[in-house]
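3-oxoacyl-[acyl-carrier-protein] synthase 2: structure tokens wanted.
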Amino acid sequence: MEKRRVVITGIGAITPIGHSAPESWSAVCRGICGIGPITAYDPSGQKVKLAAEVKDYRAEDFLDKKEAKHMERFTQFALIAAREALSDSGLAIEREDAERCGVILSSGIGSLSNTEREHDRGTERGFDKVSPFYIPSTICNMAAGQVAIDAGFRGMCSCPVTACAGGTYAVGDAFHYIRNGYAEVMLCGGTEASITPLAVGGFTSMKALCTSEDPARASIPFDAQRSGFVLGEGAGVLVLEELDHALARNARPYAEVVGYGATCDAYHITAPRPDGSGGAKAMAMALADGGAAPEDVDYINAHGTSTPLNDACETAAIRSVFGAWARRLAVSSTKSMTGHMLGAAGAVEAIFSALALRDGFLPATIHYAVPDPDCDLDVVPNEGRRAALRCALSNSLGFGGHNGSILLRNWEG
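Answer:
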């Protein structure tokens, strides 16, 4: 069977550096850092004081007060980004077969803040008195469900829960679903809102987070002084469409999705394989899936978390796949600006990769200061730059050994 072509026709995002996809991308191009002191709660009793929060967020600025009332923050973010993506695409469900339109939207954690609140309530009043909305508003798949309800999409609706790789899995799975003929349109991406005392404490106790109180030296991927990631939040949603379907309605593609690879390290619950072989295989699979040679890729949006293990392992993986071409590649981490958005990260980074291709612009790894010989690639230090780009890879490597990589090609019409 001939494989169908798939393009990105709509994007939406709400991130620590912007309330929309264009606003977030503008901040990336200017090298804006979204990391600052935690305001969601008082962190004075904890080691970690910084996070990458969505700034100046009020649900009522985006959503009807009534609809937002029983919708948790991670679901609100997803709905906001999905509505933006659909509006951007110009797609109207009234003119579509709703059963050929689906949703794949990841969240790694769901609403941990609601679990914290309802646990306190149950402790005080008895656990049979917790809110009847606790379960349906907290579970990870509810963002996908709410987006499908809002959009009227009646096809497949799923939620990959693969930690930090979830957003990439969602985009990759949606790509294959359309390419293989099961749908014409998919809303896909990821959402997260877990800047809470319990989440921050949990990540801190496992020594995953940076404890610096200097935003300029906190999320510093590939830097020799990196010491952990900074927790972020937000959502990214893309509209993927079968090419002929998109062109028939005069849609404007941002980029073409051409390859996807997913593997498991099968090694450790949190640490990657030291040789990076799992991530390398995912990248190689994405290239093979897209019929691309290593030399066709000009940019990699790295997972680049700013942890000692990840960045060195990802560098080793890139070297093993790209060989001598790795020296010619630009490999940057936009987590230096957004922090680590967990289940939303891969989706937001797929959006940034598509926009990098469209605009011919390489995002920087900001706040890079001390080179690490184990991360000796062109990390686009501190300032983005113009470049002619043909293909871009976006990598995600999650706890549990989940690895995902998607390959995008510049859309030339």
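Residues 16 and 54 are 4 Å apart (CA to CA). The chain has two domains: 6-248, 257-410.

Cheers.
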